[in-house]
Design brief:
It is built from 14 helices and two strands, in the order ααααααααααααααββ. By secondary structure, it is mostly helical. Strand 1 and strand 2 form a beta hairpin.
């Protein structure tokens, strides 16, 4: 598995375990999974999909079946276990997203379907939104879908509900700016992120930065320094190879120069512009 899967699964599983999920509820979900009600590519099928003997036709058929299960899951009664089923669906997504060899054949077309289910059932789970941004915006190339699904989070969350709720506005603003070219929408998202981060431990540093970003975007929608800062944050805050490559390409298109430190780590510098 690539770094992307290891990072995602380690972080999410630690969150899931720390949630102290009741054994009875978990048993009920496992039973539903066993009956095929919750969807998810079977683990044996995942292993077969990564094996050389699996045919492209088999992989595509498995994905088609999973798409039908996810569609069905949206209409099934949850019996009050919305959050738990959302967590379980996320684990199924990790299996799907982490199977690189299978995804090289079928692509990442189910990513948005997984998150459609997850954000519908549990839009207040702040930790899923960075994963949504990467898998749907970058791997599926559908940032407009990412923004729509993130709006479920911005509508359901508040700083009082979760101290890190501002991150949803921040990720939404980055997608709007860097992938959709919606400077006005990004400015509003950064203003909301600034409002929501106020009063948190990060607020003293981040709130002024987000407000400055919003002001720059309103004054200069094509601001190179703002886009450079945004793409730099994307580059430095991820270890995902595909996301880093796209961020680097964007930085170079903006005119950034690449420098390396004594450890060989890349950093980017934007030369002074002549006015």
């Amino acid at each position: 598995m690539e770094v992307k899967f290891a990072e995602f699964s380690q972080k999410w599983l630690s969150l899931l375990v720390s949630g102290a999920i009741g054994l009875a509820a978990l048993a009920g979900v496992v039973a539903m999974q066993g009956n095929g009600q919750l969807g998810g590519l079977p683990s044996a099928q995942i292993r077969e999909g990564a094996a050389p003997a699996a045919s492209p036709a088999d992989l595509k058929q498995a994905v088609q079946q999973e798409a039908l299960r996810l569609q069905l899951l949206k209409s099934l009664p949850t019996f009050g276990f919305n959050n738990l089923i959302a967590d379980w669906t996320f684990i199924q997504f990790l299996q799907y997203f982490g199977d690189d060899e299978a995804r090289n054949v079928t692509g990442y077309g189910l990513s948005s379907k997984y998150f459609d289910v997850i954000t519908k059932l549990d839009p207040r789970r702040v930790e899923i939104y960075p994963f949504l941004a990467v898998s749907v915006s970058f791997y599926q190339a559908k940032p407009e879908t990412t923004v729509q699904l993130m709006e479920r989070g911005t509508n359901a969350l508040s700083p009082a509900i979760h101290p890190d709720a501002w991150q949803v506005w921040r990720h939404k603003g980055l997608d709007e700016l860097l992938l959709l070219g919606d400077a006005r929408g990004s400015a509003r998202s950064h203003e909301m992120a600034a409002d929501w981060v106020e009063g948190t431990p990060q607020g003293e540093k981040l709130a002024p930065a987000f407000r400055a970003t919003a002001q720059f975007l309103r004054r200069d929608p094509d601001s190179v320094p703002v886009r450079f800062a945004a793409w730099s944050s994307v580059y430095y805050q991820t270890n995902d190879k595909l996301v880093r490559r796209r961020a680097k390409e964007a930085l170079l298109r903006l005119g950034a120069q690449v420098q390396k430190d004594k450890n060989g780590q890349e950093r980017f510098v934007l030369p002074a512009r002549n006015n």
